[in-house]
Every structure is written in structure tokens, then in C-alpha cells.
Amino acid sequence: MLPFILKRVFQSILVLVITGAIAFSMFTFVGDPIDNMLGQERTMEDVERLRAQLGLDKPIPVQYFKFLNEAAQGNFGVSYRQGREVSEIIMERAPATLELAALSAIFAIVMGIALGVFTAIRRDGFAAHFIMSASLIGVSLPTFLIGILLIYMFSVELGWLPSFGRGEVVEIGGWTTGFLTESGRKALILPAITLGLYQMTLIMRLVRSEMLEVLRQDYIRFARARGLSERVINFRHALKNTMVPVITVIGLQLGAIIAFAIITETVFQWPGLGLLFINAIQFVDIPVMAAYLMMISVMFVVINLLVDILYAFIDPRLRVSAK
Amino acid sequence: MTDQPISPQKEAPSATPSRMRRALDSDFYYAFRHSPVAMVSAVVSIVLILSAVFAPLIAPYNPFDPTSLNLMNGFTPPTEPNAFTGETFLMGTDDQGRDVFSTILYGMRISLFVGFAAVLFAVVLGILLGLIAGYFGGWVDSFIMRAADVQLTFPSILVAMLIFGIAKGITPVEHRDQMAIWVLILAIGLSDWVQFARVVRGATLVEKNKDYVSAARLIGRRPSAIMLRHILPNILSPVLVIATISLALAIIAEATLSFLGVGAPPTQPSLGTLIRIGQGYLFSGEWWILFFPACTLLALALSVNMLGDWLRDVLNPRLK
């Protein structure tokens, strides 16, 4: 068990070192931030002053060392575009994305498992067939089209839900939340569904196929022969044994939810990290891009690591072979 | 597959050694004829691709020719005559009076061009790296496959965005719009090579121990010749299958990036850019500016995707 975890930790550190190098080379070699920050009418003094201020006049190894040191402390310098500390901007934006991602994940997991079990148990029913065909369309539709479709239905035609923004937010100790006001809760619904829909269909299809697999096993037939109720068989015996692959997929999809939030946040103009990143790309705002890259790679690496370790704990076979 | 009936006329006698090949082809054709999904998606894909290729001949207007534009025609609903000029447009016009049908045809050209070029780039890169990794093994193999693992840690759309951002930073400001299409191809292609490299490496590991490779090595052929002339032709069929599915994904990736504003510029709009533009008019009731490009994108992505799925089932069911 321990060598397995150590090996995975080592691989994770390797990934972080590589993304760190990419982030640094973005800083060093991509574009000239001076060009981006100062307009056409600039003097040489302006350029020199800003260059010194940003530390761009130092040799590259010095800059690299400075970058590593600062990045480890979560400091990525000043945004070229907004002229503010990147860490400050990220802290301000993070709650919006995290709330949205958490709600989407809950939606995807709860609905995915429920519909997966339902379509497996009633596999020949009309409803199950309908859900399966609908999920196929859901998987093939690009995320942004789903968002637009939902906006058209619920904002334009029905006028029930807002189409952009977070609504009214309440600030609690530096964290802004939309859960406490009605407009905040309403604003969450459409983006959360848009973001979670793909993951929901994925989990649903996985739960369904795993359930069908498990329900064919002898111990299920035996449980039935013992006269256990369908409910006990389906949930206590069958569902429990489908959970190993499902947990893995859920874990890995959490990272994907954060990444795909970029698309959803753009459709709904949700003031989170994804929208920040897209705007940073459009304006070649390197510090923000680098910070986002580092942040998301830490997140992905940690999630992957946890899933692997969790997997080894849940599935005893993996534990044995890892020894 | 072997016990499927082959119609006699398909087994046309042929003196050349390609007879085996022809029998295979007719099996393939048989499977095709008996799958309505495959036929419909093939027809839809071909019609869409042809209309994109021949866009200048089909499109009633050239949306990029400023002289053919009349601002008075702006926001004409589909099939209704314009209130000022009396002209009618099949799918209406956008804010600048451009015919939506024509912009879709031209936009599809860019979507398809980026999609094909990106997949081609990914295939070539993936095949080369996969062959090298599989054939030589050792540290070259570990290096390439670790790089692939690192990249696979992140969703490909994120990788594409990042590459797009970096490449945009490198290109000088005055060339950014012209370079955008090529940057897009580079970004999507680089985000997609891993799966090809993995499949090719796996197949190469199997093939390189076979007798014909040993024989080629024995008569002194160079490794590059063995890889490209001997091994490659034997491992192409899974690559073809993945490439078809990749094409659908690349088209969607391109549309997503363009929709997000980090792809094709408004001067060379792809379907994604058109949807981005159309979204702005959703609330004011000009639904057609969004609706038709969105439907075209869906039809294109779905038909290519289903064709790819079908190809996978027929050529290589194990990939499922």
C-alpha cells in the first residue's frame, strides 16, 4: 500500500513541476506585457519604469527563482489587465465557481445514481427507454448549446429564471454566497444544471451498466431465492457493489466540472474563475493565466491522487497487487 | 463477420491479389447497407461537407464582400420580405444584413477546415510518437508516454484553451486575427494527439514481434522504413476509427472555443463564432441568427459522430 501511494505522490509532484515550468515560461517568453499594459502613447521612461516595477529587467534564472518562490506562496504578481494582485482577484472569484461546481456535482451525483438505478431496474419500461435516448442526445450536445437552450426556455420564453449573473449575494467573512437570497438561489439553477448535465448522464449510464452487470450475478439470484425484498436486493446488495467504478468516475469528474465551468460561466456571464480565465486568454493576461493553470493543476493532481488512494482502500484486490 | 452472407455480385472475380481486400470491402459495404443509422449519417455528413466545399457556388451572397451588403436588410426574418428593400432570405439576415444561410455555408467551411486539419495534425503527431515509443521502447517510450499521461490529467478543451492563449501571446498583435485559424488548429491538434499515440504504441508493441518485422530487420531495412512502410499499414484501422470520432469532437471543440471568444475571429466566423454572435440577439427576438447555425453545428457533429461509432463497431469492435 505505501509504495503504491508513494509512487503516486511522486508522479503528482512531477506533474506539478512540469505545469510550473510551463507557467513560468509563459511569463518569460510569451508576448510583451508592457505592450499590453501601456497604450500607443507611451514614453521610454514609462516602459522602463514599468519593466523595473514588474521585475522584467532581471535575468531569467533570477526571474525563475522569484517565480517559484512567489508561486509557492500563492503570489502570482499583478494582473496585466486589471492592475490588481492576482491572488486577490482569485480569492474574490473563487466562491462563485466553487458554489456552482458543488451544486452541479451534487445534482450530477444524486440524479445520476437515481436515474441509473431506475433505468437498470425498469430496463424495459417506456420511461427507462425514454431517459436512455434523451441521455444520448444530452451527451452529444455541446455544453454551450445546452446552456443557450435552457436560457431560451426558462429565461426568454417562460421568464422564470435569470439568464446571467449571480443575483444578489451575501458576504460572510470574505466569502460571497448566493444561497441566502432568493435571486441568488434562482440564478444558480440554470448554470448548475448546464454544468452538471454531462456528468449526470455519464454517471447515470455507468450506474446503469454496472447495475445490469451486478444483477446478473449469482449472489443476486441467491438473495432473491432467500426471499429478500426487491428493495433490499436492489439497494443493499446490487447498488453497493456498483459503487467502486462509480466513485472513481465521480472523483475524476469533479476536476472536469471545474474545468468545464469555463464554458458554463461564459454562457451565463457567471462572475467566477472560468470567466476570469477566458477573459485573461482574450487579453493575454499572463499572470492570471499562469495562476489559473497552477491552481487547476494542483486541484486535478490532488483529486487524482485521492481517487487512486480511495480506490485502493475500497477495492482490496488493488491493495494486494500493489504490495 | 466471417459468416455474414456476401452477395455474389460483390465477389466479382479479380485476378489481382487485391481480391481479399475486395471481399473485405464488400463485407464493409454489406454492413453499411444494413445500417440505416450509418446511411443517414453518411448522407447528412456528405451533403454538409460538399455544401461547405462548394459554398461559393451555392451561397446566394458572399457575406464577406462589403459591396453586396445592405444594412437596410438587417434583421430580416426568414422567408419574409424585408420591410425596406423587399428582399427575402431563406434563413433571414443578421444585424449587418448578411444572409444567414450564406454565413452558415462559409462558417461551416472554417469549422470543417479547422476540424480536419486539427485531426490530421493530431493523427500525424500521434502516429509518429506512438511508433517511436512502441518500436524503440526504453527511455524514449517512458518519456513520451509520461508526457501523454501528464496531458491526460487535464481535459483536452482546457489544454486547447491554454495552447491558444500562449500562441496568441506569441503572435504579434497585428497578425492575431489572421493567425487565429492556424493557432486554433495547433491548439486542438496538440490537445488530441495522446489517444492516437496510445493506440499506435499498443499496436506497435504487438506488431514488432511478428515475423515480417524480424525479416525486414534481418535484411537490413532502416528503423524508419520498418516503422512507416511495414508496421504502419497494419495498424491503420483503429487509427481511422478514432480519427472519425475525433473529427466530431474537434468540430465541437472548435465551436466551443470560438463561442467562448478564443477561436475563429468575427472576420472569419466559424459556426461557433456565429452562435456567439447570435446569442446576443436571443432576447430581442431575432432567434434565427442563433437557431440555424446551432442546428447546422448539431447536424454536423451528430452525423460525423454516429458515422464514427458505426465505423468502430464494424472495423474494430474491441475499441468499444
Characterise this structure.
The complex is a heterodimer of chains A (323) and B (320). Helices cover 77% and strands 2% of the residues of chain A. By secondary structure, chain A is mainly α. Chain A folds into 2 domains: 15-72, no CATH class; 92-272, Orthogonal Bundle (MetI-like fold), CATH 1.10.3720. Chain A has a two-stranded antiparallel ribbon with strand order 1-2. Helix content of chain B is 67%, strand content 0%. The longest helix of chain B is centred in the middle third of the chain and has 37 residues, at 100-136. In chain B, helix 4 crosses helix 12 (271-279). At the A-B interface, helix 1, helix 7, helix 10, helix 11 and helix 12 of A face helix 5, helix 6, helix 11 and helix 13 of B.
Please mark out the parts of chain B with pLDDT under 50 across 5 or more consecutive residues, or reply none.
Answer: 1-14
How does the major sheet of chain B shape up?
none
| Overall pLDDT of chain A | 79
Which H/E pattern describes the elements of chain A? HHHHHHHEEHHHHHH
Mean pLDDT, all residues of chain B: 80
- Shape by Cα distribution of chain B: globular
Reported by name, the CATH topology of the domain at 106-319 in chain B is MetI-like fold
| Number of extended strands of chain A | 2
- Unreliable runs of chain A: none
Structural class of chain B: mainly alpha
What is the CATH fold-level name of the largest domain in chain A?
MetI-like fold
Can you identify the CATH class of the domain at 106-319 in chain B?
Mainly Alpha
Major sheet attributes of chain A = 2 strands, antiparallel
Provide the helix percentage of chain B. Answer: 55-70%
Instruction: State the assembly state of the protein chains.
Output: heterodimer
